[in-house]
Predict the structure.
Amino acid sequence: MLVHIKDLIKKAQKGNYAVGAFNVFNLETTLGVVRAAVKMGAPVIVQVSETTIEYAGLKPITQIVESVAKNEAVKIPVALHLDHGKSFRSVAECIKVGFSSIHIDASDIPFEENIILTKQAVDYAHKHNVWAQGELGILRGVEDKAQVPEDMAPFFTDPDQAAEFVVKTGIDTLAVSIGNMHGIKKFRDIGVPDLDLKRLEMIHKKISNIPIVLHGASGVLEKQLEQSVEFGVRIINIDTELRLAFSNAMRQILERDSSIYDPRQIFAPATDILQRVVEEKIRMFGSAGKS
Ligand code: G3H
Ligand code: 13P
Ligand code: ZN
């Protein structure tokens, strides 16, 4: 069933676990994520990016998620979220079609401007009973060719600024930069991301009642995920590992049997493989059985 994100996150706050936020872009990836949540008895956040909205259309992808949540997850709570909304307009459009949560990502503009744009989005979201996620600190590695500096620390979230940001914007959740990185680059060239957990602990101390969001969590080791949950992470974002699982599965299926011409013979097993990745993440996040 489709529910408001606050129902999931308030429960996760009390129970000290994190809810997985998984990116989807079509029927198959939505089925894989929601079926994993059902199998694990776990709450789940299904999220779409602006590029997915461009790809699938806002209404079609919204209705796919709503319909899969309603029909496949009769007793399992599913929340719909906009991932990395870059403008007020994109946030407002998602709110209009019924998202219960949006992310306004103004982390790449100066602090004072980030506050202004984030507050504008938060005020609009709250007027419509929607939760808003803000972001402070820059995550590198979205682009395949992105330059990742030797020393990432200057881009990390500052704990004092985080406290000021929360007060001045009124956000419901905060995405932080603590060594986490988006995209494929960490798998191809950099290796396992190492989180600055001391910094996370300091941020959590300053904003202890605000759920923290860990983006770029594909590839992060289980031990570090567990520790980040201890220090206030309540939402963990996974996209790249799902893309890899889905694409690699399709590639292998076609390589094994080049006579396949019915796409369902490719999509169905690829969806199952994606589902298994989501199940494993749910187990790591501690949200299995918490529906
Ligand atoms: O954090 C970003 C997500 O992985 C979305 O990426 O814009 O390519 O869908 P995308
Ligand atoms: P990954 O690229 O590590 O999967 O991060 C996903 C993410 O943060 C989506 O917002
Ligand atoms: Zn992200």
The chain is about 50% helix and 15% strand. The beta strands are 19-23, 44-49, 78-85, 101-104, 131-136, 173-176, 212-214, 233-238. The chain has one domain: 5-285.
